[in-house]
Amino acid sequence: MDKMPKWADVVLIPLISLILAAILSALVILAIGENPVEAVNLMVTGALGSTYGWGYTLYYATNFMFTGLAVAVAFHARLFNIGGEGQAMLGGLGVAIVCLYIPWPHWSIALLAACAASMLFGAAWAAIPAYLQAKRGSHIVITTIMFNFIAAAFLNYMLVNVMRPQGSQDPATARFPEAVHLPTFQSMFSTAENAVFKGAPANISFFVAILACFVVWALIWRTRLGYEIRAYGHSETGAVYAGISPVRITIVAMLISGALAGLMATNNVMGEAERLVLNSTEGAGFIGIAVALMGRSHPFGVFVAALLFGFLYQGGAELALWTSIPRELIVVIQALVILFTGALDNMVRMPLEKLFLGLRKGAE
Amino acid sequence: MTVPAIELKGISKAFGPVQANKDISISVAPGTIHGIIGENGAGKSTLMSILYGFYKADKGEICINGTKTDIPDSQAAIAAGIGMVFQHFKLVENFTVLENIVLGAEDGGLLAPSLSKARKELKELEEEYELFVDPDKRIDEIGVGMQQRVEILKALYRQAEILILDEPTGVLTPAEADQLFRILDRLRAEGKTIIVITHKLREIIENTDTVSVMRRGQMTATVKTAETSPEELAELMVGRKVLLQVDKVSAKPGKPILEVENLRVFDQAGVERVKGIDLTVRAGEIVGIAGVAGNGQSELLEVLGGMRPGQGSIKLNGEPLALSGHGSDGQARRAQHIAHVPEDRQREGLIMDFHAWENVAFGYHRDPAYQRGLFMDNAALRADTERKIEKFDVRPPNGWLTAKSFSGGNQQKIVVAREIERNPDLLLVGQPTRGVDIGAIEFIHKQIVALRDQGKAILLVSVELEEIFSLSDRIAVMFDGHIMGERLPHETDEKELGLLMAGVAEEAA
């Protein structure tokens, strides 16, 4: 029998972890002489109190959905892809090339091409660590971390030496042409008398992310490839017995993972910045790990966790803006949430499992 | 009468429902070599783990040199003068011999004084027991025989008076094994007490003073080696329990289905596990491979099932099978109508976290019958699972449970149902009833015989001699990667097979 009911695993554990993180964060805020209740209030109104706040929250959440899905797919094959950051950077390069050097008649066709290019570039960046893991046994955690640095350096080179417009001081590409600008939520949902999401970066790629959630769900639980990925993730010897090639699954799972991370560029590069800048990913690749952990590698869980982290990001920014709570403390709060929901999962899980076992024994 | 160096009185140890040791008493005189022999799973290693403080006995007491001694952990065992040489050495590969010997017995925070003291003592030990090793060589630079010497020296360095060796010759060549026993002779001459655990009869007969036989957790006999014979030990070891009878008519073997010629298999470490065997399995017969675990049977099965590469020639229905590279994986084998019930259902045959209905397709998940367009046809899978659950009486009859929620017997029924229902030409079966309850054993045996009666070829690997006897139409015995001989079940007995399994050549038996 399973040790505890499924709802406890999916809902209760993340919830308790979150509460613990919140309590600790409150203590830290108290310690620096601010009022935690007021801080929470500010975060909620700042992130969720207006369509402007929502526009930012959903923008961040879109990034985290892509990187969270990327990590989740790799998790199913028991691969720890820490390279989402680098893969998303390369995805940005793909998007920039497609948007800058090809004249597009309409944003919708450009978006399709950008999706393809970002996936291709992201997957290509994941392919080398995947190959090294599958064929040479080089640990994927190490190689993907290293590839993040290589990606950053490579992008630096490309932006400074290759793609920077002549005469510009800024290590960034030129702005993308008007035709490839994606519709923002503002232009999509505002009416003549009521402007919503005004100035917020949320854009149509939010729906691409939701679509990606459905596709990943179908891939993992409804296709033969997903079946093989999950089987390999649960038992390598089992996979060998069934004639599932560990090499193939490792490479394919990482390619899909890299493609998903690359897709993030449709949001931050094409949808928001509308040009490629240095460090465009802003750590979203790493947040994806926490999102996947908290979401139990399930696309729906990833969706919810991405929303939560989007809220934390936007709420945190508001907090830094309106209080004397320093920007660094926001990072502390976010880190606590990541720590409790991700790394310290077992701390909550073990006592809870014992509790449920005890309850069950009592019932029998 | 001298005080025994070790005396065990009424030791019992259970792991859950499994009684690993039942009321075991032995007494070993000082300055002797005492052998403990028994089949795999007889409880030898558990007993020695209790003596070395890894497990705590449920009942019974241990006396060292006549005084009752508690051994809660290995530190206490070392303090009591017990040294252990494990089957799998506990050495740090990239440390030198000297560093390994000192490891865990350092005198203080600084290493240099300990090392120089150890170097001096090591030299004395080497000369006293003629146990020469180069103290500055790294462990990964020296051979297996040398590594074992380091283990022995480690024990002696910690002033061991009693030395326990668990399957010491398992990894040694015959020449290295001879050297080992010369060393043990020498240690005995110096007054050490030695316990050797093995399943090899010849080693016991040639090297020990007394021998105890274990079977199913019990000590069935302790005899003086000089007063016994390999035949008697084999009988004691295997036992004469009534066979679990399977109703079956005699086989009507047809044309050869599987033909194996000069098959060699090397493991990941490059060690040769199967050393050139020939084997034929015909339609309508069950060929049983008997042997103590670890003599190459698993590797044979895995090559046939496409789980690892091999060299040589294998033909199925006269068509050669690929043994490495393209076309040699499990998918290719299934396409060639070879079904495989693997030895370890939990690690290989099933994905324990998958639902039963997902496991029913495992290995056959690419079958077009299970696909619908881009997707798996889960409804078809579940319908198929319901059929198999009913036909094979899997309990509880719920395809939505994960594999790990079923008992061992019902897990195995799921695997057997999946493989037999493919109606294969050749069925590979490894340890079909390991950890399976009696009722399920009978059921699984019946299914295997029924498949044979449909004219299919079956290759059975089992470490249970009873199972081999009750199912096989022909028995081949494997030892050390070779087939020692083939016998017909009605023309042989456990004693003869036991000798073959222990590697005693036919003329000696």
From TrEMBL, chain A:
Keyword Membrane applies: yes
Organism: Ruegeria denitrificans
GO cellular component: plasma membrane
Keyword Flavoprotein attached: no
Keywords noted in UniProt: Cell membrane, Membrane, Transmembrane, Transmembrane helix
Protein name: ABC-type uncharacterized transport system, permease component
One Gene Ontology term of the molecular function aspect: transmembrane transporter activity
Membrane topology: Multi-pass membrane protein
Pfam families, alphabetized: BPD_transp_2
Transmembrane segments: 12-33, 53-75, 87-104, 110-128, 140-160, 200-220, 240-264, 302-323, 329-348
InterPro entries in the cross-refs: ABC_transp_permease
Superkingdom to which the source organism belongs: Bacteria
Localization: Cell membrane
UniProtKB/TrEMBL annotation, chain B:
Native species: Ruegeria denitrificans
Enzyme kind, highest EC tier: hydrolase
EC code(s) of this entry: 3.6.3.17
Protein name: Galactose/methyl galactoside import ATP-binding protein MglA
Family: Belongs to the ABC transporter superfamily.
Gene name in the database record: mglA_1
Keywords assigned: ATP-binding, Cell membrane, Hydrolase, Membrane, Nucleotide-binding, Repeat, Sugar transport, Translocase, Transport
SMART domains in alphabetical order: AAA
Major site of localization recorded for this protein: membrane
Subcellular location: Cell membrane
Molecular function (Gene Ontology), one example: ATP hydrolysis activity
Top-level division of the source organism's lineage: Bacteria
Domain ABC transporter: 6-241, 258-505
Database matches in InterPro entries: AAA+_ATPase (IPR003593), ABC_carbohydrate_import_ATPase (IPR050107), ABC_transporter-like_ATP-bd (IPR003439), ABC_transporter-like_CS (IPR017871), P-loop_NTPase (IPR027417)
A Gene Ontology cellular-component term: plasma membrane
Topological type in the membrane: Peripheral membrane protein
